[in-house]
Amino acid sequence: MAKKYFLIFIGLFIIGTWGCSNNDDVKKIDLSKKTDLKTTEQPSGEKPLRIAIGGMTTPRAGFVYYKQLLNYIGDHLGRKVEFVDRENYAIINNMLKNQELDVAFVCGGPYVDGHAEFELELLVAPLAYGEAVYYSYIIVPKDSPVKSFKELRGKTFAFTDPLSNTGKLNPTYMLAKMKETPDTFFKSYYFTHAHDKSIKAVAIRAVDGAAVDSLIWEYANRTNPEFTSKTRIIEKSPPHGIPPVVVRHRIDPELKETLRQIFLNAHNDKKGQEILKGMMIEKFIPIDDKAYDSIREMKRWVEAQKEIKK
Fold first, then answer.
1. Collapsing DSSP states into helix, strand and coil, what is residue 155?
2. What is the CATH number for 59?
3. What are the φ and ψ backbone dihedral angles of 38, each rounded to 5 degrees?
4. pLDDT tens figures, 132-168
5. What's this model's pTM, rounded to 2 decimal places?
6. Within this chain, do residues 185 and 122 fall inside the same structural domain, yes or no?
7. Hey, which bits of 147-257 come out as E strands?
């Protein structure tokens, strides 16, 4: 039986307060509802393109750049874009499976699950900080005496989303290699559902440690290190394929290729360059399914350990 989550009232506080910004444009976005983005005039009878944002290369404070990118896509398509925001990866995958979404920015873990379950398709991937990979960072408060993941035994811990690669699968895999599980290893743990919220949870010492996306930590550390400066990275995972942009199975091939070209060429014009710079993405590139094999291997290992324990 899973342990009950730790300090629920603190978790709610973190979820309710993180992501605030002085940027008025960000404040105007209702993150709990879908938003129709302003694009060129919609051809008569054509359905809007529905895009969800789950896996991000920025904290929620950088969300405005994703809104700009979706506007950019709509302008180049000459088609209305309907933005759908969901923090829960499982919901986004289910919507892709049921063809309620056309495009999504997802984490590596949900892509692997979706590809296996309902033939979710890769479109492109970002090149960020010179790489098309990312890492899981295990972080602790800056003044914590803990120096390794093993020293977090009997401590409190924050995961992000149950389907997250860097925020759940990778640390669970590390535990499986130690013949442990989150239930046997940690005193208590809970899910924040966002990497920036996990960073804050560690910074304010609501938990003893957390597993977070390297892209989110690095972006925050470069732009607003209020909380990252109060944390310390004690372990860094091997590289994994970077969170990709995906499309639903059986999307119109012509639309898919048009979208691919818009992403791949965004860095070649001034407007696209400005948006990508704000996201700390150099450009979008093609990516092969094999880039996510390391995630598949971790999943197989974790599942095998579960079977052994039965």
1. coil
2. 3.40.190.10
3. -75, 120
4. 999 999 999 999 999 999 999 999 999 999 999 999 9
5. 0.84
6. no
7. 156-159, 188-191, 209-213, 231-236, 240-241, 245-247
